Amino acid sequence: MTNPLITIAIPVYNNEKTIRKTIDSCLNQDTVTNYEILIVDDASEDSIPQILASYNDPKIRIKTLTTRVPLIANHNVCLNNALGDYVVFCHADDALEPHAIETIAQKLKERNYPKKYLLWGHSLFRDYGLQLQKAGFNTNELIVGEYAVMLPMHGGLTPSGTCYSRESLLEFGGFMHVDIMLAPSDITTMLHLALNGFRFEMMDEMIFIRKGASTMTTDTKIKEFLEAYDNAYLHFIKNTAHEEIENLLRVSTQHKEKPYYCYYSLAQDSRYKKPIWNILKKNLLAQPWRLKSKIVRKLISRVRSS
To answer: Mind listing the pLDDT tens digit of every residue in the chain (306 residues)?
Structure first.
């Protein structure tokens, strides 16, 4: 396909039960926008290869990996192989609303096809509106500058259903590396991009259906969940200047509800234990009921350890 504005990228691994609905939702877009569909099969071991081979549409390109990679690495494969100026991810157990690509294209036009830009809308289940409210921002508002880092501190924006300016994201290294298959690189990638002047915007439009969500980590046991967070933040800490992380902590004091999971993983580095403890003490004096929270108790244990 020649010069598509948007690539819909579908990273897939063993999603034989849901992939047809995903692909069909991407094919059946009510739009005049020039777009392609790139499917990257992460060495699936089920009937995915046969299902993909059954499609014969010029919009679809398929890339097959011979060795499995972590989920977030597959997203970077998608970025590197996409032809579009913008990439909209759609995981293989999710679906786009029929108007999604046209809605995104109209917003891109309204913003004069920006670089260093992330765009998303409402979704059925796993909607990001709550995180937006916690950070004190509104829909249809450009979020950029020092306080943009407040947005991902309460949790990352899943790539599925999100539009990225492709070249800009690749210029800043793509999605941040993780070692664990489902570690939440969406959080640390957003923090990294916010620190480098990216603009974020949530549209007040429903564009996405997220029901299966096999890539989610929130149902994981707390131990494995925190290990995944630690792994993602470990790479963030290694690749972020000390002064920038200190500034993150300073900005975090503006949160009405403190980002405890962010604090917990930053505190794996001993340099940040004392400033986090100072923030936490003030928070608990004002809100002592927070001690009932399991993550708060684990955070106290971590920052008070030698």
So the answer is: 678 999 999 999 999 999 999 999 999 999 999 999 999 999 999 999 999 999 999 999 999 999 998 888 999 999 999 999 999 999 999 999 999 999 999 999 999 999 999 999 999 888 999 889 888 899 999 999 999 999 999 888 989 999 999 999 999 999 999 888 777 889 999 999 999 999 999 999 999 998 655 444 444 578 888 999 999 999 999 999 999 999 999 999 988 889 999 999 999 999 999 999 999 999 999 999 999 999 999 999 999 997
Sketch the domain layout of the chain as residue ranges: 6-210, 222-304
Contact criterion met (CB below 8 Å) for 39 and 70: no
C-alpha span between 29 and 32 (Å, rounded):
9
Q: In what order do the strands lie in the sheet with 35-41?
A: 60-64, 35-41, 6-12, 86-89, 163-165, 117-124, 199-210, 94-96
Structure token pair of residue 277: 């403890």
Contact 200, 120 (CB under 8 A): no
Please give the C-alpha separations between residue 171 and each of 48, 79, 166, 174, 282, in angstroms, as whole numbers. Answer: 32, 11, 9, 7, 40
Is pTM beyond 0.85? Reply is yes
- How many angstroms separate the CA atoms of 212 and 175, rounded? 23
Coil, helix or strand at residue 119: strand
216/214 Cα distance (integer angstroms): 6
Q: Which residue is listed with tokens 């690189």?
A: 185
Closest by CA position to 183, among listed 220, 136, 132? 220
Superfamily of domain 6-210: Spore Coat Polysaccharide Biosynthesis Protein SpsA; Chain A (3.90.550.10)
The closest alpha carbon to 305, from 266, 274, 275, belongs to 274
